[in-house]
Amino acid sequence: MDIIKSDFDDRCETINHLHNHIEFMTLQSKSVTTVLILKSSLFVAIYNNIEATFFALFEQIHKEVSSVDYHALSQRLKVLFVEYHFNKISSINPGSLKKLQECELKFPQLMEYLDKRKLFSGNLDVRKAKDIFYTYGIPFFEFHPDVSESILTVKNKRNSIAHGEVTLLDASSGFNNAKMKRLVDDNENFLTKLISIVGLYLDGRKYLSAVNAA
By the 8 A CB rule, do 68 and 81 touch? Predict the structure, then answer.
């Protein structure tokens, strides 16, 4: 988790540096076009930080869980295990059941899992994050509606830019520096909280069944 936190801090530092540059450029003459482009770039940078942080967190989860036998996993992770290897419980035949009983199969690493199942891709906001955490049996935090709105705004703006629905000049129209700073802060606080939650989940070995965790 130390590397995850360090990389996250580096990305946040870059984002804050970009915002500071936007504030500096705002004070310069004939800089309206440049400022609008920079603000749109900030939307993309913030969202990229969200996806990068999520990827790192779930990569660590899969890494630690992959060393645990199926029988010792929590019920939620057993479901993910079965869905990955067999698509559904009804697909388990006697041969597959034998592999499960003899612990021949392992919980996949994240990249292996993503080859078969979609976890997230351009769709991360508070609601999606909550759904993913629930799927893994990870507790979630009820964020203030303003924070949820900030995350949703960043996601939608980034997607509009990425899909060519708006130009870099148009995407940030109506967002003054104070609004942009709020987006920066809300997203940093959001991700900081999720890193803390996942850290507690892993440290407490909450991925194990109640019997094995005791």
Answer: no
pLDDT tens readout for residues 98-118: 666 666 788 999 999 999 888
Give the closest residue to 125 by CA, choosing from 155, 82, 157. 155
Reduce the DSSP state of residue 55 to 3 states and report it. helix
Write down the domain spans for the chain.
2-213
d(CA 158, CA 47): 7
**Whose CA is closest to 51, among 11, 6, 3, 2?**
11
The three state secondary structure string of the chain is CHHHHHHHHHHHHHHHHHHHHHHHHHCCCCCHHHHHHHHHHHHHHHHHHHHHHHHHHHHHHHHHHCCCCHHHECHHHHHHHHHHHHCCHHHCCHHHHHHHHCCCCCCCCHHHHHHHCCCCCCCCCHHHHHHHHHHHCCCCCCCCHHHHHHHHHHHHHHHHHHCCCCCHHHHCCCCCHHHHHHHHHHHHHHHHHHHHHHHHHHHCCCCECHHHHC
* pTM (2 d.p.): 0.90
Do residues 157 and 171 make contact, with C-beta atoms less than 8 angstroms apart?
A: yes
CA pair distance 108, 50, nearest whole angstrom: 23
* DSSP run (H or E) holding 8: helix 2-26
pLDDT > 90: what percent of the chain? Answer: 75
Q: Which helix (H) or strand (E) holds 80?
A: helix 75-86
